[in-house]
Amino acid sequence: QVQLVESGGGLVQAGGSLRLSCLASGNIARINDAAWYRQAPGKQRELVAIITSGGRTNYADSVKGRFTISRDNAKNTVTLQMNSLKPEDTAVYYCNADVSAVVRAYYWGKGTLVTVSS
To answer: Which of 24, 70, 85, 96 is the most exposed place for a label (fewest CB within 10 A)?
Structure first.
């Protein structure tokens, strides 16, 4: 059974930084593409950043230049470094990954809450 577990969320003042981690566990052969999404109260879930199996990245315009997605294949982790945080970054952040295990499928974590105070 593959599980994705996010950590690193919390309360931070505007202008501060947080580092989110997503750990994939289970009988995993490989994490393929992986991404971070977020969902603010009353809004739809949106893509924040994506990293391919080859390490290429792409970001939502709202976070370009402030957020960095990275991966450690040996540790089955995907990280989102968030700098210069703004109140509008407040949301539950979810990890999503295409994982090769017994079967290949997309998995979601349960999310971690990020709250940015003004």
So the answer is: 70
Residue with tokens 């994490």: 31
Burial of 29 (0-12, 13-18, 19+ CB in 10 A): exposed
Look at residues 57, 18, 65, 64 and name the one whose alpha carbon lies nearest to residue 35: 57
How many Å is the maximal CA-CA distance in the chain?
A: 45
pLDDT in tens, 50-92: 999 999 999 999 999 999 999 999 999 999 999 999 999 999 9
DSSP codes joined into one string, 7-40: E--EEEETT--EEEEEEEESS-SEEEEEEEEEE-
CA proximity to 93, closest of 101, 104, 85, 102: 85
The CA radius of gyration of the chain, in Å to the nearest whole number, is: 14
The structure tokens listed for 89 are: 């970054």
